[in-house]
Amino acid sequence: MDGGREQLLSQLANKLRVLSVQATSDNPAGNSGHPTTCASCAEIVSCLFFNTMRFDWVNQRSPGSDRFVLSKGHAAPILYAAWTLIDDARAANGEVNLKQPGPNQTELITNLRKTGHKFEGHPTPKLPFVDVATGSLGQGLSCGAGMAYAGKYIDKADYKVYCLLGDGECAEGAVYEAMAFSAHYNLNNLVAIVDLNRLGQSEATMYQHDTEGVSNRWRAFGWDAVVVDGHDIKALDSALRSAGSSDKPLVIIAKTFKGRGFEGIEDKLNWHGKPLSDPKKFIAALESTMPDGPIKLPRPEVPKDPATNIPEKVTIVKSGIPAGTKKMATRKAYGLSLIALQCDRVIACDAEVKNSTFSIDYKNAFPERFVECFIAEQNLVGVTMGLACRDRAISFASTFGAFFARAYDHIRMGAISLSNANYVGSHCGVSIGTDGPSQMALEDLAMFRAVPNCTVLYPSDAISMQHAVRIVANRKGQSYIRTTREETAVLYEGWKEPFEAGRSQVLKYSDQDRALLIGAGITLYEALKAYDVLAGEGIKVRVIDLFSVKPLDVETIRTAAAASGNKVVTVEDHYQQGGIGEAVAAALSETDARVRIMAVQEVPCSGKGGELLERFNISASAIVNTVKQFL
Hints:
Radius of gyration: 28 Å
Shape: elongated
Structural class: alpha/beta
Number of helices: 22
Largest sheet: 7 strands, mixed
Mean pLDDT: 97
Strand order of the largest sheet: 10-9-11-12-14-13-19
Helix content: 25-40%
Low-confidence stretches: none
């Protein structure tokens, strides 16, 4: 790198500091944000955006461009600063005046964190240059690993993924999960940069400036590690150029100082997340290093886009469920349904329980479309989200439904990320039997129902499972499919029933129905048994296969309740809180219907599946008794 280029990148780093100070500490809309954490990584961001990365200034979500993940999401102002400089340069024949903010920079300075504005406190994909929302620390590297996996093994393209982490967040276990995954798959197109600025929010970080100790930890996980002065432009450039020189991912441990360039504040505690008290003083000092006239902003190389994208619609031409099948567990139908999608952009991830979730069938059919994430559920979810970014894949993640609880914060952030990742949980409810409560998903419906824009489907047989897979593969937003461990009878035939998100199936009805039974999964079969018993005693009831837990088929449920004496019994292999019963009760809250909720009411125990259904009062006999008492 020549001296002129080095000087320009240094000036741009200071410009990024100035914009970060102006937006957080000299903002007419109100001061708020993290100027000191922006200052520590200014040279890193300058080198990446104005020297290293290849990307399209115009199509900011181009699939062929290098990716940047700001895992330390509280440094959002410096990311916004880089892109507003780019946008202003693009509008002015590539030129910017570093001492005079252009219109896009002015918009940032006056609107950061303003209610309803796109420049939020932490990055979200409302902005075209953001792939995943960050700010809940420790999650960016997993998402970046998913993007890098897509680039190397699915797109087979040469784009790189750069992930900037804070040193404090590297205490998160999710970071270590991502480190192990990335090294295992030789993701040498992934570059992590650790902004080792020594200071956390309330005290010094765990390893402070122990660059040797930190780099050795990454090396122990199988990464190439380079230690640099994070404020030395030439050193950063040299380290970044070494990416991809081996078959290992690269981490750059950048020793930096929090509040760099802010005299009296640099490397001092108690300035985390605080606006600067005298911003104009710092702005003047930084601008004194800049030229008076316009400069040409370095424009990056624009790489070619990969040849293939995901199709607009995925269909099933031939059923994956063998003709004549009488019984099959919905978990078994999952892998067969993925195969039936016939799309080479469908990627299945699993947490090393693939012979229980039956994603193994998909792996056996298409090993190149299967990603083993091992027993690391946080990374499983992050990788699945990363794979789905920029429509590179239709991604599914499967594990025991209970174990998604470990990754719930990642799933929560997936909603903010506008992710299209799909999750499939097996081993749900007490019906799994002898494994005991540690393996029983009894909170999963509540978890996923609470996530905004998340579709929740609960198929009861193999055919409806196949429909569920098809539906979520074509649906925007995150999705969760709940499967059953036990074999259940096939209720439907082929494609005759119009399964959709937000639609339930009425299986039994008459004009003399006195109550409505609503079940899903294993409890639907208990409801059907109860129907037969009650019918034998002259009691007519209606039965609904709920199928779509969210969105709920409110119209069908209200109509069926009104036609059944406004007496509704829901039965679910799940805790009551947040489950099917409460969803149905909310839908019927403005009607005359009364609802009895049958659900697991206490922490269960080991036992045979049928015995546990009886013990926890969600069996056919319990349903019969509840209906009789209700009437």
